[in-house]
């Protein structure tokens, strides 16, 4: 059994290596098509190496029996995000075709609704897959906010940086790590960010319209995070103020019950 698990683990690791190879191939195609400069190449390669290293480490810890079809879809999205990242980095040196950047981003956003459905239909939903999907989404939003910030101003970076600021805050305030209840509003706001930033980045609308779209995205994100933080704070307070209730066994004798009650009163006084 141990040998079989080791063999399957190697197959899983091979899939991540293939993903890194496909990422390099995509960068080569982009470089040939637009003459991508050093900034785009280095950023794209750094993204590919970092994705392979982090994903390989996570797989080594969880040791799944297979990589899974849903994770393959997410890995494909990550490859597209790597291409978008390279194009955005290259945009600081030259002007890459906007249609190419918009096309890669649009496909990545469309596939965002696919990997979850595949996981549910195939019964392969895992905590690792959900985290992988979330991290790819968050990084794409960060990259798009960097790109749009060159057009509308550095304040747009608040959209991409808010989730990372929340993670950093949770290091100092562990109560922020508590699980949140399911919320369709939270999912809708998260999906809006990519669509709004893509629309603004495509530069199809007048400047004021692009500004309004991005402000709408930022406002909804602030509301969503604010609501979640408020819920987590109330949950933490309720947890801290909860007093354990000690019950007296019903079948105990009168003498034992009186002794138990006295003991409980002493414990309650000590807690208070």
TrEMBL record:
**One of the Pfam families matching this protein, by short name:** CDP-OH_P_transf
Q: Which PROSITE patterns match?
A: CDP_ALCOHOL_P_TRANSF
Q: Which InterPro entries match?
A: CDP-OH_P_trans, CDP-OH_PTrfase_TM_dom, CDP_ALCOHOL_P_TRANSF_CS
- Domain of life of the native organism: Bacteria
What are the protein's UniProt keywords? Membrane, Transferase, Transmembrane, Transmembrane helix
Ranges annotated as spanning the membrane: 20-53, 211-230
The UniProt similarity line reads: Belongs to the CDP-alcohol phosphatidyltransferase class-I family.
Name this protein carries in UniProt = CDP-alcohol phosphatidyltransferase family protein
Origin organism is Streptomyces hyaluromycini
